[in-house]
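Structure tokens please, single chain.
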Amino acid sequence: MQLLLDPNCFYLNLHPIKKIINILAVAGLLLTIHSNTKAQVIPVLASNVAYANITCVVVSPIVITKMRDMHFGSIVSGTKGTVMLPPDGGKPISTGSVALQSSANTTSTATFEVSDNLGNNPNTVRMFTEYTITLPTNDVVLMNEDGKTMRVGNFTSNPASSQKGTLVNGLGQLSVGATLYVEADQGLGQYASTAPFPVTVNFN
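Here you go.
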């Protein structure tokens, strides 16, 4: 018996097999690609940026004006002593044998006016209502016409420098007292400070 093979039939029968082989080849290729592909790593940022705005407020400078100088009045010295002038305007207090020849009315503390420099209009919007006070820490030298000297120190104020001054409608009052140190052989004459002493105020 002779078996006749039709080439077309053989081709047609093999064609589905080729499709299967092609599909398996593609699947194997995809599997190979997938197995060789590394996982992606997303880098974490090492820095970042934020933004901020800038603002400021410009205010009028605080002003301090001397209204009256300090005056200890007339004294008679004997032995070494002191004269303390209270900052509240009270009567001077002496120690040692220093005699006071002036009443409290002829002595005076140094007085100052403090202002926020905005005028005294009560409707003005004010940034500050308090101020701090800084007094001299070093003694002030007084000298007479003959070159004799005295010292003034231990400055105190009203309001006290450890507290805060108050501005009412932009104005405040400040008075300063101190202690005069008198030597036993203190020379006669009128003494005056060789340089004015500073009083500093700052907005609080």
